[in-house]
Design goal:
With about 180 residues, this protein is mainly beta. Helices cover about 10% and strands about 70% of the residues. The chain has a ten-stranded antiparallel β-barrel. Strand 8 (about 125-140) and strand 9 form a beta hairpin.
Length: about 180
C-alpha cells in the first residue's frame, strides 16, 4: 500500500509539471476557473465553478491523454466537492475530453464527465458536467475561448436539483 501511495504522489507531481491551459470564464450567471493539461501522458485537471445564488463546485483530477496528430483524446477521473445552496456533497466523476487542432492557433474541444449514484455522497443521485468550445491562441501564451457549459446536480428529491451552469461563456487565459 505504501508503494502505491508513493507512486500516486509521484504521478501527481509529474502531472502538475506538465504544460497546461489556464482560463477564467464568464457565462450567463456563472464564472469558472479551469486548468486543462496539454500534450500526452498523465495530466492534472483543476476545475472551479461558481454560480450566482446557486452555489459552487470545485475539484481536481488526473487524466491520461493520447495525441493522435491534430487530435488529442484523454480519459480520466476527478473528485468534485459540490456546494449548491441545497446542501454539500462529493462526487467521483469519470469522463474524458477531445481537442482537435484546426490550425496551429485554433482548436475545437469538448469534454464530458459523469458521476452515477454509486459515486456520489449524500442525497445526490448523479452529476453531469459537459462543455464544448473553440480556443484561439491570440499571441504567444494568451488565449481566448468561447463555448457552452452544462453542469447539473440531480438529487434524489427532485425539488433540490440544481443546474449550476447551462449556457454560453467567454474566456481569457494563457498556456505554459
Amino acid at each position: 500500500m505504501k508503494n502505491i501511495c508513493i507512486a500516486l504522489a509521484l504521478a501527481g507531481i509529474a502531472a502538475g509539471a506538465q504544460a497546461a491551459d489556464y482560463s477564467l470564464s464568464v457565462g450567463d450567471g456563472f464564472q469558472q476557473l479551469t486548468r486543462t493539461p496539454q500534450g500526452g501522458g498523465i495530466g492534472l485537471t483543476l476545475d472551479y465553478l461558481n454560480t450566482e445564488h446557486k452555489g459552487n463546485a470545485g475539484g481536481a483530477g488526473l487524466e491520461f491523454a493520447l495525441p493522435l496528430g491534430s487530435l488529442t483524446l484523454a480519459g480520466g477521473a476527478k473528485a468534485m466537492w459540490l456546494s449548491p445552496d441545497t446542501g454539500s456533497a462529493t462526487a467521483a466523476m469519470l469522463g474524458g475530453r477531445a481537442n482537435f487542432a484546426v490550425t496551429p492557433k485554433v482548436s475545437l474541444y469538448g469534454q464530458a464527465y459523469y458521476s452515477p449514484d454509486g459515486l456520489v455522497s449524500g442525497s445526490v443521485k448523479n452529476v453531469s458536467d459537459v462543455s464544448a468550445g473553440v480556443r484561439w491562441n491570440v499571441l504567444g501564451p494568451f488565449t481566448v475561448e468561447a463555448g457552452y457549459r452544462y453542469f447539473d446536480i440531480e438529487r434524489k428529491d427532485s425539488s433540490r436539483n440544481r443546474t449550476l451552469a447551462d449556457g454560453p461563456f467567454v474566456s481569457a487565459g494563457f498556456t505554459f
